[in-house]
Amino acid sequence: MQNYDIGNKVLEFANKYGADEAEVFISANQVTSASVRHNLIESARNQQSQGLGVRVVKDSAVGFASTNIFNRLEETVKSAIAMAKVRDSDEDWKNLPSSGKYPAVNGIFSKKVNELELEDCISLTKEMIDGVCSFSDIIAPSGSFSRMNSNQLIMNTNGVEVEEKGTAVSGFIDVITTSGIPSTAYDFRISRDMDIDFYGIGKEAANLANSCKNGVSVNSGQKDVVFHPFAFSDIMESSFLSSIEADNIQKGRSSLTGKLNTDIAARGLTVTDDGILDGGIASSVSDDEGTPSQSTGIIKDGLLKSYIYDSYTAGKEERYSTGNAVRGSYTSTPSVGTRNVVFDHPASDIISEIKDGVFITNVIGAHTANPISGDFSVEGRNAFVIKDGQIEKPIKSLMVSGNIFELLRNVKGAGDDVRMVGSIITPSIWVSNMNVIG
Amino acid sequence: MREPEFYDVRWIEGESTSILLDNGKIEDINTNYGSGCGVRALCGGSWGYTSSEGVDGIDTAINAARELASDVNKHSPGEKVTLASYCEPNVDNLPSIKETPRDVPVEEKVELLKDLSNNASCKGISSTSASYSESTFKVHYTNSEGADCEYELTRVGFAISAIASDGAAYQVGRESNFDVCGYEMFRDPGILEKAQSAGKTAVDLLGARQAKGGKGPVILDPELAGVFAHEAVGHASEADLVLEGSSILADRIGEEIASPLVNIVDDPTLHKFGYYPFDAEGMQSHRTDIITDGVLNSYLHSRETAGKLGGTSGNSRSQGYSAPVVRMSNTYVDNGNSNLDEMLEELGDGMYLAGTRGGQVNTGEGIFQFNAEKGYIVENGEIGDLVRDVSLSGNTLEILKNVLLVGNDLKMHSGRCGKSGQAVPVSDGSPHLLISDALVGGVQ
User: Fold this and answer.
1) Which of A29, A87, A108, A287 has the fewest CB atoms found within 10 Å of its own CB?
2) Structural domain range at position A366
3) What is the total count of domains within chain A?
4) Is the pLDDT confidence value at B125 over 50?
């Protein structure tokens, strides 16, 4: 059965069993991947999935069910309606989104990526390993290459009918030195098009592990810290992004409640949630409930300008959705989430401006942050001493702790090395007064 | 095409329901019916995997996996893989289900969550969220060596979190329990006490000051010590990581790597959240003594790693239809013979760290970092002021050597463990541990 036929059938069942409104979200993905183990390609993988989620509204209460068994569509719809009936009417519920004008979004489908053969996937994976092997005494214990073709259809009883195809390709490699005290590093790239230098991924990772050999210790204290895009995006994702989501604001679970149009970050820092970014990993013509995607200014020159909304949280405030309904998969209901998040700050040669500080490439433990208070404490990895405007010796181990909202106010500058780390796009960021424990 | 020498098929079919209550109101309620299969084929040293979810045709999946394996073998031949020999499992240790969750009306489950929320809402709590989950699924395993076995398993659980706020600051308290049993879990009034404890933790943390970092002696509570056993030791004992050069425990079997008081065990036969009757390769589950009296005794194995290193397989697991990976199950530090009072007296001045907000480990370098939920200053053996935002970090082998006393009060906690992009149910635990020297991170 084609997706449209399945969708129509689901909406018919919903109507038959008395739903006031109904929505079907169908996704079909095909992922081809290869895994590296100890400098060799160990395996190749092909994953096919197709499934659907049904959201129904009955007396202003929402029910949801999902399945990947297409001869159980009727049972799935009945189950969604049964779920809705357990709930009380929700006075905040307005409507499922109506059909809107969809933007043109560039660069989210690549024919080249779509048509990659297994042999191509294997040779790109080999390129990463070759990059690692350009250094002696360094191996790749693990790594992976992945290509995804996705197809998504959203239909509802208010006339939404939006289908979209996307592609993505990514490479990840872990490396470790084989002589002396082990030194590790990783590198990662993702894109919707065939524009990744896979050899470069391996080479960069190996170069980093190589430069981190024989680390020194560093004194504890308040220091200037430069966070590489890996480290910065990891910390932001775990401790900041949830605080701009409208449901957290409305439920009092965000430190940014009531802070609109106040200074929350250093002047110069601009943050945008962009669902229509060219080639963005989280770009698409609509969000996951069929609202047209858009670009929303979150922080402008330090000033908090907006939160992000899906149709439900927008309905509560009698405003429009910002196109930020996202789903983990077809098995879950949409909820508020970020799209591409772009950090922007005037660039300069920041290292040369720092007398005494540290550069941190990546962190471990970012997910242990407290996303409400914004407090975090992480271990810095692949870190270096910055002295008199120069990057010097590698640092064996250090902890960095602080509060994300203070960190945003202490942003002093940014590099010109803007990088797409999944759906977060950022340069290296220079922050003063960070608490470093050596 | 070179013919693969081995293939296997896991077919899974099941249904699950989850309910999320937010501030006493249903936020999400969700049922899923799912089925699909994961297929592997081995050709020389190369694996091919296919999974097909919601798409029919096991035969197509088997053929595709065989083609992938033989293609990889052709373009990137690796050292031939020899699987440890196969043996059909006995499925005779399934947990009993006293009350089938599916038969309990949804309304009753919603009432249960409301009860939990009310119990978590003590004075000072500004919001709560409570979730319920149940799943029942059947796993059917066959392979080219003639295996044919299956089991059905039911899992239930709940999680409660409470947020305390004074307008400016926020603190969270969380409790949860997941298990391989039926709805009878929720007939135990103890779960309401857990909800109360989540509320109390949040309120207490709000009044707590931030911890000061530094080095010194610490006592770890059973939850945090269990996370250490799982994250720092358990992962490093996974033989796939050992073979890929990512484990600090490589080449150390038979070596004394910990204080002689330390015994660490992984046991999937226990009826805890990490239970399974046979693993994702159809092998009987069994207990593994990872560390015995301080000596590294065994790694955790798949058939491939057992074939290479020797040892007993039975530790392959997968999430849904994904490819099997060497994983832990129920992992714990076994009881010693000290009680908490003796440990506090021995500690004298130091920190008592309790609970966890997750952690991360570099198994290759043997270093870790965990955030505790809370800490207490201990002075003269007396537990004193509560502090927040404390983390424990250090070197796995150093911490193992620095274990001075092991308590006699083993307690398990359930959760999910992530590796290779897959999450599987696990439990971990420990009695209290006294560590002579550790790095405690704070904010001040």
Assistant:
1) A29
2) 217-438
3) 2
4) yes
Task: Name the domain boundary from A209, A242, A263.
Answer: A209
Report how many helices (DSSP H) and strands (DSSP E) chain B contains, helices first: 8, 24
> Which band of pLDDT confidence, cut at 50, 70 and 90, is reported for residue B140?
very high
Q: Which residues contact A284 (CB under 8 A, 6 or more apart)?
A: A105, A108, A152, A164, A166, A275, A293
**Where would I find the beta strands (DSSP E) of B253-402?**
264-266, 288-292, 295-296, 316-317, 325-326, 330-333, 350-354, 359-362, 367-371, 374-379, 382-388, 391-395
Share of chain B above pLDDT 90, in %: 83
Is B46–A119 a contact, with Cβ atoms under 8 angstroms apart? no
Q: Which residues of B touch A214 (CB under 8 A)?
A: none
3-state secondary structure at position A385 = strand
Quote helix, strand, coil % in chain B, to nearest 5: 25, 45, 35
Q: Give the tens place of pLDDT for each residue, A308-341.
A: 999 999 999 999 999 999 999 999 999 999 999 9
Share of chain B above pLDDT 70, in %: 98
Q: What are the backbone angles phi and psi of residue B62, rounded to the nearest 5°?
A: -65, -45
* Nearest Cα residue in chain A from B322: A47
Q: Which of residues 64-93 of A touch B (CB under 8 A)?
A: 64-70, 72, 75-76, 79-80, 82-83, 86-88, 90
Whether B46 and A34 lie within 8 Å, measured CB to CB: no
Chain A residues with beta carbon closer than 8 angstroms to that of B127: 251-253
The answer to whether A161 contacts chain B (CB < 8 Å) is no
Section B266-277 average pLDDT: 98
Say what the ipTM of the complex is: 0.82
pLDDT at B444: 40
The matching CATH number, chosen from 3.30.2290.10, 3.40.50.2300, 3.40.640.10, 3.40.50.300, for B6-207 is 3.30.2290.10
**Alpha carbons within 13 A on the beta-carbon side of A330:** 28
CATH number, position A58: 3.30.2290.10
Co-location of A205 and A250 in the same domain: no
CA distances from A6 to A12, A29, A52, A79, A157 (A): 10, 16, 9, 17, 14
Same structural domain, A196 and A79:
yes
